[in-house]
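Input (structure):
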């Protein structure tokens, strides 16, 4: 199984980051091996009746990286590229992220290899309910709490809640987070990840002495994370000059109207063709001279070649694993880019998911203002702790973030011991 995981490019990248950080921390081999490999990997075949009468079999996965610090937490993504190695890598990153943020969770991730854009709502519902049925023995508020990710949303979570509640014979809202408000979801959850990306980016600008009303940004990806990151940056006074999605990229040197762009995307399904913008090559957009570059799409978006050409001052990683290890080395060697690594930058989603879980356990709701305030307080403290660690240990921000997270997990492993 190790060979299968390491053959996946994304897991290989996550493992390389871990190995480098483990060397930095001088972890002993026993603890290192226990921290690196996932606790549980589940794969399912999912036959679904399609609208045209045929039956199609999809393949879904769920990886639980570690349960040493509490139940595991992580999203479910629907995307054609989903495979077990990618899911395992994302679960590993989620583990370090939760530990870095000091949330009482291990890391998990799930996904189905499918293209939801080509499926009807009914087909998506049948697929989700079948996946939920297979997952039910392995998820729950004390075991594993899924959430939305790429290609899924609050409606997806609602179907899972309904499936779980029907099987339990009672309402079980704590089985997932990222639910609609009427199913005891949390105010502020939808925008949490993007808000956190913008919040940490503006905090980095402040450390660099750049005022937000004089700053500019480019956002790659205009899904849930990218759209809210762009919108929050705009509200903070930053000119968002470029935005891209799977269809293409647009540019306005005076700044795009992100609220108007959101409406355009809702109508057309793409950023392309938005008023008061011009087309730009998506790769060229990312190497324009701006203060903030926020890659908020998929993994491995920034290659070694691109890293050499970046002109941003802050690299805010809204996506998981957007920078390859080769690119990482170049960025660290350059020393002129303030990196906010993914496990810190996009931690807003899992943090507010934690708040949602706590509210579900207590059967008590907080206001959006309370949620966002708590989120910013926690992210600010973690951001400052990360920067202080990097300065004290004279290491890059990626190593600092991973070191803080991995050490938290390793210390728990040592304290609990090995059974039997």
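Output (sequence):
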């Amino acid at each position: 199984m190790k060979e299968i995981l390491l053959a996946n490019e994304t897991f290989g990248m996550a493992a390389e980051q871990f190995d480098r950080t483990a060397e930095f921390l001088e972890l002993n081999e026993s603890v290192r091996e226990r921290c690196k490999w996932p606790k549980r990997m589940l794969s399912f075949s999912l036959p679904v009746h399609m609208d045209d009468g045929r039956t199609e079999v999809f393949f879904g996965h769920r990886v639980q990286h570690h349960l040493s610090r509490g139940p595991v937490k992580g999203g479910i993504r629907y995307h054609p590229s989903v495979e077990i190695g990618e899911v395992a890598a994302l679960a590993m990153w989620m583990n370090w992220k939760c530990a870095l943020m000091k949330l009482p969770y291990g890391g998990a991730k799930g996904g189905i290899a499918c293209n939801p854009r080509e499926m009807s709502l009914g087909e998506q519902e049948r697929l989700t309910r079948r996946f939920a049925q297979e997952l039910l023995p392995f998820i729950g508020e004390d075991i594993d709490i899924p959430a939305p990710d790429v290609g899924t949303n609050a409606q997806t979570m609602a179907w899972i809640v309904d499936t779980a509640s029907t099987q339990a014979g009672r309402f079980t809202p704590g089985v997932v987070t990222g639910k609609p408000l009427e199913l005891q979801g949390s105010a502020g959850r939808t925008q949490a990840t993007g808000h956190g990306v913008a919040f940490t980016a503006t905090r980095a600008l402040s450390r660099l002495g750049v005022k937000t009303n004089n700053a500019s940004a480019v956002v790659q990806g205009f899904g849930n994370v990218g759209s809210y990151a762009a919108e929050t940056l705009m509200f903070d006074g930053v000119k968002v000059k470029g935005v891209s999605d799977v269809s293409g990229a647009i540019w306005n040197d005076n700044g795009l109207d992100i609220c108007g762009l959101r409406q355009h995307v809702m109508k057309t399904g793409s950023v392309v063709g938005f008023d008061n913008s011009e087309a730009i090559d998506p790769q060229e957009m990312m190497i324009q001279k701006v203060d903030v570059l926020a890659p908020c799409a998929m993994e491995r978006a920034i290659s070694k070649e691109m890293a050499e050409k970046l002109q941003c001052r802050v690299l805010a990683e809204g996506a998981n694993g957007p920078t390859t290890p080769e690119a990482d080395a170049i960025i660290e060697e350059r020393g002129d880019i303030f990196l906010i690594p993914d496990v810190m930058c996009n931690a807003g989603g899992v943090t507010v998911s934690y708040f949602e879980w706590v509210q579900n356990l207590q059967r008590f709701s907080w206001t959006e203002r309370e949620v966002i305030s708590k989120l910013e307080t926690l992210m600010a403290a973690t951001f400052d702790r990360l920067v202080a660690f990097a300065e004290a240990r004279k290491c890059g921000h990626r190593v600092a973030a991973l070191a803080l997270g991995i050490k938290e997990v390793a210390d728990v492993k040592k304290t609990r011991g090995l059974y039997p």
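Notes: The chain has a mean pLDDT of 96. The first helix runs from residue 2 to 7.
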